[in-house]
Design a protein that fits this description.
heterodimer; A: two-stranded antiparallel sheet; two-stranded antiparallel sheet; B: 290 residues; mainly alpha; ABC transporter involved in vitamin B12 uptake, BtuC; two-stranded antiparallel ribbon; 11 helices
Chain lengths: 296, 290
């Protein structure tokens, strides 16, 4: 992460790098939910949207500094996740997938329709982040900020997994009933991780808005949610490093594909299918398994 | 009163399309336990292929037939090349495959066709019929009548033919069905083909009223899915009733409350249903064995 910039020929590469880190942050959060706790969310972009619009609306309508909005957005996302998660997380499999999907779409629809606040489908511009009189605007600055935050997110996630909560979550993943029998408060643990993963997504959303300087309801759309899930699955469920790999592949690929821009959607869909059919465990776990075999 | 009648009619028309999409979902789910998110893409392909076949100079009925055949073939291909190789994957993995397929089909459609909105001529012209103070488009009646015919045919097929019984057997217990000599792979093939055909027909029917473009599939699939959830996953009757109800709710909301939130209704219903009555109106309670 630190060495990479020495090989960057232009600022454009910093931009891509920053985007990769920002998405990886959201993906780490989602991976905690999907990979460790075994609960799927097809509406996680909803939290991305809440974070993004918090960073946009706060400074413009309330004069709250951007960095504070980041935390306010995360708090709102956490609260929403808490309220929505309580009833939703009782559901399983298909039902959970659809309920989260419905939630994500509702957020996107509200963002599109409350044009008085959000500028409607065209979106709104976001004031630049200002830290101690320093206007953060360059891609390189964002590369370092997002990178540092991602490292923090990694550390937090790894620690969480080693905590009693993390072990309880893995037990839930393996067998909910067994976990229940062992005396784990399954509902509460699931809710905890849902709230945490929502806050990861929210922070990533705020960063995305501040970095781009503009935000549209697409940030909370169905395709975004799918993209996030695809990143988790691509990198490898339950692999924290995989989150970065998954985000990198799906951010970098469309950038290189812009040459034949028209094929972007078709290629994305194709990759998703091929991966889910042939490489279901994801890149990082598969590579790790191959290495382990090879060393024997 | 006339106003209400108008809303009810437009609601039922759209609802009939949702019901057809929901029926497609149900059929595939029954046969294979898969939720096929590409169902909406079948509707889009039906509409778009017809439009472009007509632009190539083919008459409407023939164009519609071509569209239905093409879409059915794509449905079969989806099963053979994407679902079959991944047999035994988790439900979420299978959902992701069908979502991938839907994005893929949409991407292909915008290359082969284009990114504009298209319409089709109505079968019986565009002069509205006056009925109790409400104006009803002839095409609405075509949609409703066709939906009734399709539902009846499907019911006859499932209930009265040997092949239909094989579908029921497969959905009840795959292994047992195989043991008594049902080729379950063929049955799932069939369910994908029929679902795709129903989707394509829905696409041809709705295009004169609601226009079509390469990206109409997602929302239709999600609405159809809301219908399935409302009616109860796996219940054909539930799918039809759920579809009509969602169409009605949407039309009434758009008429009396705010049309901005018309699309939100379906998802609000999903959440409310899942939280309060997860098995839907007509679904059977699932008992989990430990």
């Amino acid at each position: 992460m630190v060495i990479l910039p020495y090989f960057f020929p232009s600022a454009y590469y910093y931009r891509i790098g920053a985007l990769v880190f920002i998405f990886a942050l959201a993906v780490v959060g989602l991976n905690l939910l999907m990979g460790f706790a075994g609960q799927v969310s097809l509406g996680h972009a909803g939290f991305l949207g809440i974070g993004a619009y918090a960073a946009a609306i706060g400074p413009i309508y309330y004069g709250v500094p951007s960095w504070l909005c980041l935390f306010v957005g995360a708090a709102i996302s956490g609260a929403v996740a808490f309220l929505v998660g309580r009833p939703i997380l009782r559901l399983k499999g298909h039902y959970l997938a659809v309920a989260t999907l419905g939630f994500g779409l509702l957020v996107a629809i509200v963002l599109t329709n409350e044009a008085g606040w959000t500028g409607g489908p065209d979106g709104m511009s976001v004031p630049r982040l200002a830290l101690f009189n320093w206007q953060v605007r360059g891609s390189d600055a964002w590369y370092w900020i997002a990178g540092a935050t991602l490292v923090g997110g990694f550390v937090l996630a790894l620690n969480l997994m080693d905590s009693p909560t993390g072990r309880a979550l893995q037990a839930i993943h393996d067998s909910e009933i067994a976990a229940l029998v062992l005396g784990i408060d399954v509902a509460r643990k699931k809710l905890t991780i849902f709230v945490i993963s929502a806050m990861y997504a929210s922070v990533a959303g705020s960063y995305l808005a501040l970095f781009n300087g503009h935000v549209t309801p697409d940030v909370a759309g169905f395709l975004r949610s799918i993209e996030l899930v695809a990143m988790v699955v691509l990198g490898g469920m339950g692999s924290i490093v995989g989150s970065l790999v998954g985000a990198a592949v799906l951010v970098v690929l469309p950038q290189t594909l812009t040459i034949f821009h028209e094929y972007e959607q078709a290629v994305l869909g194709f990759i998703l299918m091929v991966f889910m059919i042939f490489l279901r465990r994801g890149i990082v776990p598969s590579v790790a398994a191959t290495f382990a075999r090879w060393r024997k | 009163m006339a106003e209400l009648l108008q809303f009810v009619f437009s609601g039922l028309t759209v609802g009939a399309i949702y019901a057809l999409v929901a029926l497609g979902f149900t059929l595939i789910y029954k046969a294979s336990d898969i939720i096929n998110f590409a169902q909406g893409e079948f509707v889009m392909l039906g509409g778009m292929t017809t439009v472009f076949a007509m632009l190539a100079g083919v008459s409407l009925p023939l164009a519609a037939l071509i569209a239905i055949i093409v879409t059915t073939a794509i449905g079969l291909a989806l099963h053979r090349f994407a679902i079959e190789p991944a047999r035994g994957a988790s439900p979420v993995a299978l959902i992701m495959i069908t979502i991938g397929a839907s994005i893929f089909l949409r991407g292909i459609a915008q290359i082969i066709f284009d990114r504009r909105f298209h319409s089709l001529p109505s079968l019986f012209g565009d002069d509205p019929i006056k009925f109790g103070g409400a104006a009803i488009l002839p095409q609405s009646l075509v949609v409703l009548a066709s939906a009734i015919v399709i539902v009846t045919l499907l019911w006859l097929f499932i209930d009265r033919t040997l092949l239909g019984k094989a579908v029921i057997a497969t959905s009840a217990n795959r292994l047992a069905a195989r043991l008594i000599g049902v080729d379950t792979r063929r049955i799932v093939d069939l369910s994908f083909a029929v679902s795709a055909a129903i989707g394509a027909i829905a696409g041809v029917l709705i295009t004169p009223i609601a226009l079509t473009s390469y990206d109409v599939g997602t929302l239709l699939a999600l609405k159809g899915f809301a219908a399935v959830m409302l009616g109860g996953l796996g219940s054909a009757l539930g799918a039809v009733v759920g579809g009509l109800l969602i169409g009605l709710f949407e039309a009434l909301d758009a008429g009396y409350l705010s049309s901005n939130y018309k699309d939100a209704i379906a998802f609000l219903i999903i959440l409310i249903v899942l939280i309060s009555i997860p098995r839907g109106l007509f679904g059977r309670a699932k008992i989990e064995r430990v």
